[in-house]
Amino acid sequence: MVCDATFYGKKKDKIGILVFKDKISKKIVIWKHINSETIDEYKYLISELIDQGFTIKSITIDGKRGLYRLFNEIQKQMCHFHQIAIIR
């Protein structure tokens, strides 16, 4: 599973989307329009996936604070793009 949020429009618009994509099927399995990227938004989508019967074996996430603790029981990896951005 790969997840990330992106925002579009002007900065003041605060329009974004949080997406979870299955790495094997390459399909988006769940998404949600968001106003800000919060841990609660991730929690909500994870619980929706579990309720739908998904088993998350591993997840690739950005460096957002709190995500590592949220996905404590799931094998995780930080996105290479975000790793490079942090180093720069």
Radius of gyration: 13 Å
Distance between the termini: 26 Å
Stretches with pLDDT under 50, minimum 5 residues: none
Number of strands: 5
The third-level CATH topology is Nucleotidyltransferase, domain 5
Give average pLDDT, whole number: 84
Helix and strand succession? Answer: EEEHEHEH
According to CATH, what is the class? Answer: Alpha Beta
- Please tell me what the overall shape is: globular
Summed up, the domain count is: 1
Sheet having the most strands: 3 strands, antiparallel
| Class inferred from helices and paired strands | alpha+beta
Describe this structure in words.
There is one protein chain. With about 90 residues, the protein is α+β, with helices and mostly antiparallel strands. The chain has a single domain, classed as Nucleotidyltransferase, domain 5, CATH 3.30.420. The protein contains three helices and five strands. A three-stranded antiparallel sheet has the order 1-2-3, covered by helices on one side. Strand 2 and strand 3 form a beta hairpin. The longest helix is centred in the middle third of the chain and has 13 residues. It is globular and about 35 Å long. The chain starts with a strand and ends with a helix. The mean pLDDT is about 85.
What's the short version?
The protein is of the alpha+beta class. The protein has helices at 39-51, 67-70, 80-87, and strands spanning 2-8, 15-21, 28-34, 58-61, 75-78.
